[in-house]
Amino acid sequence: IDNLQASVVFGASLYSSDDGDQGGTCPVLDTVTASLNNAAAIDTLLDNNFPIQGADTPTTESLAATFGAFPATVTPTSPRILILATDGDPDTCVDPDSNGEAGPRTASENAVQAGFGMGIKTFVLSVGADTDKPHLDRMARLGVGQDPGTGTATAYVATNATALQTAFDQIIGGVRSCVFDLDGTVDSNSAAQGNVRLDGTPLDLGTDWQLAGGGQAIELIGDACDTYLSNDTAELTAAFPCGGFVVQ
Question: Given this model, what pLDDT does residue 81 score?
């Protein structure tokens, strides 16, 4: 988050419940609203909250609330993803002691499927020993639009700091794109006159980059794309001649 916060919109929510709907509050969400440059606020959220022993896990209701508050895409090609980190089997607000039962598992699987229908992919991260791996794998597949039985996606397992870092690197790296939207349109006849650079190094049209989206985006290709995806702090710049770029 520290490395990417200037270019990626991050938010965070911690979820639990206060005895479900049995006179308490459900779900209980402590949230940092998604925005750029959010690392300090997320650090504070995590520093000020600790795992609650014996607390409830209303995953379905918490997912629904989070999906409903999800920010719109920044650009047409910006991916919208949710990382669900859980340390236990789900229960529900109606029945806060239903951990391990089929109903809460099915409901949470349906919730990530609904999120995918809203254009939000869910990646599942197991951070505890009391989770049901087959259930989490089903959620992982439904969360990215795959068949829950035959899909290939699986939940990430991270029970230590190193595994957690690796999981985040793989998730974020897997959804980063080499397509960059422009605030205008490049005339294809002027593309060859463009000055496109990656970390200051000039890139060649057709070998390292190409126009996309009818001239409204630049796409890195080949080694240039690989270089960008492997570097969290890579900087892409582009300049085109006057008349060859129409501002929208």
Answer: 93
3 state SS of 247: strand
Query: What DSSP assignment string belongs to 78-115?
Result: ---EEEEEEEE----SS-TT-TT-HHHHHHHHHHHHHH
For residue 42, what are its two tokens?
């997320």
Q: Both tokens of residue 43? A: 């650090």
d(CA 74, CA 55): 35
Cα 63 to Cα 123: distance, rounded to the nearest angstrom: 12
pLDDT digits (tens, 9 = 90+) for 175-229: 878 888 888 888 888 889 989 999 999 999 999 999 988 888 899 999 999 898 8
45 SS3 class: helix
Token representation of residue 88: 């236990």
Q: Could you count the other beta carbons within 10 Å of the beta carbon of residue 207? A: 11
Q: How far is Cα 181 from Cα 195, in angstroms, rounded to an integer?
A: 16
How far apart are the C-alpha atoms of 144 and 81, rounded to whole Å? 9
Name the average pLDDT for the chain.
88
What are 65's two structure tokens?
Answer: 């609330």
**Cβ atoms 126, 134 nearer than 8 A:** no
